[in-house]
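User: Sequence recovery, please. Input:
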């Protein structure tokens, strides 16, 4: 048991060391924001970057809303199934409720797919 604990601590320390040093080493060659920006069009690129970030934020918010609606529909279908199964008297009733659950899942998936299709692709950063 002591060997297992010692090995576990060793592996944990290695993982922690790699997790803490990898970002530092990955950014070692890049220059931070310390230099001066002599680009005359810097204001334009900053403005287009801001617009791009706003577009991506709006896209991500819409996508999260679509996914949340999907998960809410699935949760509602489960609650309906569980309450119906609790009151079902025969196997035919339980089977019908399970089929209704499957139909609700298929409908929710179709609605999500339609919403994602109408949302379109993620905005692309223009160069």
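Assistant: Recovered sequence (127 residues):
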């Amino acid at each position: 048991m002591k060997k297992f604990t010692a090995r576990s601590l060793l592996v944990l320390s290695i993982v922690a060391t790699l997790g803490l040093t990898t970002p530092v080493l990955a950014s070692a060659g890049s220059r931070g924001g310390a230099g001066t920006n002599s680009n005359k069009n810097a204001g334009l690129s900053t403005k287009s970057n801001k617009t791009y970030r706003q577009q991506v934020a709006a896209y991500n918010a819409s996508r999260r809303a679509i996914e949340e609606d999907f998960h809410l529909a699935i949760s509602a279908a489960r609650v309906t199934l569980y309450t119906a199964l609790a009151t079902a008297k025969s196997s035919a009733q339980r089977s019908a409720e399970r089929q209704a659950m499957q139909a609700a899942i298929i409908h929710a998936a179709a609605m999500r797919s339609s919403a994602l299709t109408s949302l379109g692709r993620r905005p692309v950063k223009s160069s």
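The longest helix spans residues 42-87.
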